[in-house]
Amino acid sequence: MQHLDLTVIRQALAWARAGETLWLCTVLSTFGSSPREPGAWLVARCDGAHVGSLSGGCVEEDFLARLADGAFAAPVQRVRYGEAEDGLSGPGVTLPCGGVLEVLVERLAPGLETLAHLEALEAALTGQRPRLRRVDLASGECVLEDDTGLGARVLWPEAPNGEAPSHVRLRVGPAARLVLAGMSPVAEACAEFAQRLGFEVIVCDPRPQALEGLALAGVERVASLPATFIADGGCHAATAVVALTHDPRLDDLTMIEAVTSEAFYIGVMGSRKTSAARAERLRRSGGLSEAELSRLHMPIGLGLGSKTPAEIALAVMADIVRVRRGRARDDL
């Protein structure tokens, strides 16, 4: 499954390699209801060709019309849709949802610097190296910084005495991946929820017949031990690994291998009593340290009182989203 962000950057690269000037637009913030979250991208040429989106269509239409009229000649510009305040330009477009959308518009001229920058973004999106784009809001100068890939996609600095920020940092990382260790009714429900949330979903099970019953299109099926898939490089920093089979032969091996990976979330299903027994087993037989055991979410998921496979899957995916967004349990 090709993530929309990757599609945007690859189109930007194609235009840059052809010597085209392009405009990269990033949603900085939303207020009220909005169809896209902060960090969403759109790339465009002055002739109206574009990939990606910022809203349900009204913002794109206005932006492309103004671009065709010669607007956005500056290296960088902030635009607020839905209202105008704080000195930001407001095109007068009223969003149907009643929300407010702020967009960063960067003009990227053709050249080696632009190509190198876009290639680094492509590498980050394909899992090689999560980055932060530090964009100077006056000059448009952009510097890449190393990052974990986790947390909010748009980071504003603390400005003293209410002053306008001088820069913004934009998080760029690989598309979220969910590795499901073994097929089960809960795993199938998790796969469906995860797809809706924009995750790349991979189901690993050494039993080919177990994968045959999975009817969800777009889910990758891997007929091997999940531990083998992980050991072969199946995880990056935006990967969640969950074991939902109640089979310790499958689940324990997965946990032992997963803690050596960069996965941001590792969880296994079971009651508190089962989880305590598993922790002791992994400590004694698996050789896991206390630090490695602390990475495991067990029992997995938020405590929603879930009973059915769908309810358990909801609790699991909600907890994965919580960790990915950098929220502590106490903040809920």
From TrEMBL:
Superkingdom as given in the UniProt entry: Bacteria
InterPro entries linked: MoCofactor_Util/Proc (IPR052698), NAD(P)-bd_dom_sf (IPR036291), XdhC_CoxI (IPR003777), XdhC_Rossmann_dom (IPR027051)
Residues in XdhC Rossmann domain copies: 178-320
Database matches in Pfam families: XdhC_C, XdhC_CoxI
Domain annotation XdhC- CoxI: ranges: 15-81
SUPFAM superfamilies from the UniProt entry: NAD(P)-binding Rossmann-fold domains
Signal peptide residues on this chain, from the entry's feature table: none
Name under which the protein is recorded: XdhC family protein
